[in-house]
């Protein structure tokens, strides 16, 4: 692709970061797939309902449920009663899940340092400002 559109140019660094984080987690004893990560990274601090996770991850409730089942078997999440609705369950991150999140954050920070070295401080801040401005019209969860 000689002249990629902006969407592709935004996706390439995201994919690079995601692949490196997933590889590092797997190498560190936290096996997880990209699909599982897409769901798990959307769990709120107090927990989230399955439907909320499915919507935020742009997947079906059935697929989100399948991924949550896998995450639960691996010890990253747990299901707990929802104090606001006795019929509902919340998906919450476990201690092991928080360990994996911390490990991922270390890799993320290292990648951002690499990008900052490549772009320079001013270039990095301009990119961040432009992306934050673009988020205003593209992120329904902002």
UniProtKB/TrEMBL annotation:
PROSITE patterns: HTH_MARR_2 (PS50995). InterPro entries: HTH_MarR-typ, MarR/SlyA-like, WH-like_DNA-bd_sf, WH_DNA-bd_sf. It holds the Pfam family MarR_2. Transmembrane segments: none annotated. Residues 3-136 form the HTH marR-type domain. PANTHER family: MARR FAMILY REGULATORY PROTEIN (PTHR33164:SF99), TRANSCRIPTIONAL REGULATOR, MARR FAMILY (PTHR33164). This is MarR family transcriptional regulator. It comes from Arthrobacter deserti.
């Amino acid at each position: 692709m000689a002249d990629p559109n902006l969407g592709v140019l935004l996706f390439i660094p995201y994919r690079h970061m995601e692949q490196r984080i997933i590889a590092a987690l797997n190498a560190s004893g936290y096996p997880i797939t990209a699909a599982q990560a897409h769901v798990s990274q959307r769990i709120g601090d107090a927990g989230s309902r399955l439907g909320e996770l499915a919507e935020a991850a742009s997947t079906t409730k059935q697929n989100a449920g399948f991924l949550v089942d896998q995450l639960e078997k691996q010890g990253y999440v747990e299901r707990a009663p929802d104090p606001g609705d006795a019929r509902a369950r919340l998906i919450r991150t476990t201690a092991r899940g928080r360990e994996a999140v911390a490990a991922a954050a270390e890799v993320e920070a290292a990648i951002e340092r690499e990008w900052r070295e490549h772009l320079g401080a001013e270039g990095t801040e301009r990119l961040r400002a432009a992306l934050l401005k673009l988020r205003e019209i593209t992120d329904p969860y902002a």
